[in-house]
Specification:
This protein is α/β, with parallel strands linked by helices and 267 residues long. It has helices at residues 15-35, 67-84, 108-116, 135-148, 166-177, 188-205, 213-219, 228-232, 241-254, 256-266, and strands at 2-3, 40-44, 90-96, 98-100, 122-123, 129-130, 132-134, 152-158, 164-165, 185-186. Strand 1 (2-3), helix 1 and strand 2 form a beta-alpha-beta unit.
């Protein structure tokens, strides 16, 4: 069983929904796996379990700071408990960083869309690290671990290499998309004040605005998560970050009109 389903949105989700989907949903799958004799369970967790512990690796102690991260860590505990009930069972827990690639309409996609549409302005100086993971590499990593790991519990981070700063990431997207970037940036304190304003507006209107205080802070904060264990086992990523970004950008530009209509109608 490969379990990827989760409640993860940062707007409009109640605390209990995170635990109902991420924890109780996982328990249901584990019970079904036990009932039907499934002995290998791959659970996609998240680097959100580390909270503000950045940089991190697999030896870093989890310390989640939001309901999503807390619920993911609780789900991990259920997976570990299931694996420990039978020596024949294998549990592989994968904690990916921000995943991007064709089909994704969040996180890196928002950045790509803003840059391609000429609406991007840097928040902060851009020197913070942003770990990311191309979906093609993550799939390869999953298949690699399924082959390598047998019996017991195995926990892995996954992120692409090299680790880029936000400035490097933004410049690379602009280069691939042939776009020019503004030469100035907005200091984080100023961006946060705008974010708080949109937070209030969001509560009044019930709309999810792209600018929030939490998103401004997250954008300008380092989220560096190293994947030492899988590389120690011999995994080598097939796609470079530039390859992955190009695929995502080309997908967006090819489907831009329909995507913009769908996204704009939901905002």
């Amino acid at each position: 069983v490969i379990h990827l389903a989760a409640e993860h949105k940062d707007f409009g989700v109640k605390k209990e929904d995170y635990f109902k989907v991420n924890v109780e949903g996982t328990k249901i799958l584990l019970e079904a796996s036990a009932k039907f004799g499934v002995n290998k369970f791959i659970f996609f967790s998240s680097v959100a379990v580390y909270g503000n512990n950045s940089p991190s690796n697999e030896d870093t102690l989890p310390d989640p700071i939001n309901f999503y991260g807390i619920s993911k860590l609780e789900a991990e505990k259920e997976v570990i408990k299931w694996a420990n009930e039978d020596k024949k069972r294998t549990a592989i827990i994968i904690r990916p960083t921000v995943v991007y690639g064709p089909g994704s309409k969040a996180n890196i996609f928002r950045l790509i869309r803003q840059i391609c549409d000429g609406k991007f302005i840097m928040v902060g100086n851009g020197n913070n690290i942003k770990s990311i993971a191309y979906v093609g590499n993550l799939v390869d990593a999953t298949l690699f671990l399924m082959d390598k790991c047998n019996s017991g519990v195995h926990v892995f981070n996954y992120s692409d290499e090299p680790q880029l700063t936000t400035k490097q990431l933004v410049n690379l997207i602009a280069k691939i998309a042939s776009r020019r970037l503004p030469s100035f940036y907005i200091p984080l304190k100023i961006a946060m004040s705008f974010g708080y304003g949109f937070d209030i507006l969001g509560k009044i209107t019930g709309k999810d605005f792209p600018i929030t205080a939490a998103r401004m802070k997250k954008f300008a904060t380092s989220t560096c998560h190293q994947a030492y264990k899988i590389r120690k086992l011999g995994f080598v990523q097939k796609y470079s970050i530039e390859d992955g970004l190009r695929e995502h950008i080309e997908w967006y530009l090819k489907n831009k009109e329909n995507l913009d209509q769908i996204i704009d109608s939901s905002e």
